[in-house]
UniProtKB/TrEMBL annotation:
Pathway: Porphyrin-containing compound metabolism; heme O biosynthesis; heme O from protoheme: step 1/1. It comes from Neogemmobacter tilapiae. The gene is ctaB. It catalyses: heme b + (2E,6E)-farnesyl diphosphate + H2O = Fe(II)-heme o + diphosphate. Converts heme B (protoheme IX) to heme O by substitution of the vinyl group on carbon 2 of heme B porphyrin ring with a hydroxyethyl farnesyl side group. It is a multi-pass membrane protein. One of its GO terms (molecular function) is protoheme IX farnesyltransferase activity. This is Protoheme IX farnesyltransferase. InterPro entries: Protohaem_IX_farnesylTrfase (IPR006369), UbiA_prenyltransferase (IPR000537), UbiA_prenylTrfase_CS (IPR030470), UbiA_sf (IPR044878). Interacts with CtaA.
């Protein structure tokens, strides 16, 4: 009997299994965008307060992941991409995941309030609620717009980082939100295209299931185009600059070209080359947000920001 089989039979979870519940790859995006939102804000934050705040935002993001895995354990067991997750693989019991997620949620919100301010803490609490209840429980299994509306949860972290520094919301933080919000649908629909029948088997009404793959391809292209004005507005805002503008123009050109290639293909062609283009666009989309927000941080560090937003 292998060690993995023994773990699955005994249900004895290790540190790595609970870490996996936090969705570390997703958490990396949460942490990075929240950090950028914090450091580009006009109000300086003490390094200790900033470090603690990002840590608690990360814990809140991880709590959301754990609660999402608890709720989605039934469909995770059906989908090939998620069968190895801690709950469907038998490494973590559902009750353990639920308790872990709830404990981290309460801890992260309370500690962010104490470390920074209660507006940011309330924003984090709302984000956890939105991801778990609005997206996971309600929208995901109800409508093909699940990833469009639910994508707001992944777009809130830079606003929380900004709120840590400023105690509020501004046009700049809303633009950071808008870029991630508009990026999320083509990112996930590119994934859905090469995941083939996973969502259909699990009964998740992803756009590929409800409207077909041809319509999904058109939506990918449409959203890569719709992303352009929001990303340009962010680049031309008071927290943008020459670096952000240049990076934004290059990234959008590549993303739209990728969306056009996806739209231009039929299923026979995609199947023949194992969905090579769709996988390329998905992988590129992962770097889109990191590079965009990294450019914002560089403009701030290099002093290449605009003296003021171009529209004001």
């Amino acid at each position: 009997m292998s060690e993995t089989q023994a773990i699955q039979q005994t249900g004895e979870a290790g540190f790595g299994d609970f870490l996996a519940l936090l969705k570390p790859r997703v958490m990396s995006l949460v942490v990075f965008t929240a950090l950028v939102g914090l450091i580009v804000a006009p109000v300086p934050v003490h390094p200790v307060v900033g470090f603690a705040s990002i840590l608690f935002i990360a814990l809140g993001g991880g709590a959301s992941g754990a609660l999402n895995m608890w709720w989605d354990a039934d469909i995770d067991a059906i989908m090939r991409r998620t069968q190895g997750r801690p709950i469907p693989s038998g490494k973590v019991a559902p009750g353990e995941a639920l308790g872990f997620g709830l404990a981290l949620s309460g801890l992260s919100v309370a500690m962010l309030g104490l470390a920074a301010n209660w507006f940011a803490a309330a924003f984090l609490a709302f984000t956890i609620f939105f991801y778990v209840v609005v997206y996971s429980v309600w929208l995901k299994r109800l409508t093909p717009q699940n990833i469009v509306i639910g994508g707001a949860a992944g777009a809130f972290p830079p606003m929380i980082g900004w709120a840590v520094a400023t105690g509020g919301v501004s046009i700049e933080s809303l633009l950071m939100f808008a870029v991630i919000f508009m990026w999320t649908p083509p990112h996930f629909w590119a994934l859905a295209l090469f995941m083939k029948d996973d969502y259909g088997r699990a009964g998740v009404p992803m756009l590929t299931v409800t409207h077909g793959r041809k319509a999904t391809r058109a939506h990918v292209l449409a959203y890569t185009i719709l992303l352009i004005p929001f990303s340009l507005a962010l680049a031309l805002s008071g927290i943008g600059g020459w670096v952000t503008l240049g990076v934004t123009l290059i990234l959008n050109a590549i993303f739209v070209f990728g969306g056009w290639k996806i739209w231009h293909r039929d299923e026979a062609t995609a199947e023949a080359d194992s969905y090579r283009v769709e996988k390329q666009v998905f992988r590129f989309s992962l770097s889109y947000v990191f590079l965009t927000f990294g450019a914002l941080a560089l403009d701030m560090l290099l002093g290449t920001r605009w003296p003021m937003a171009w529209w004001g």
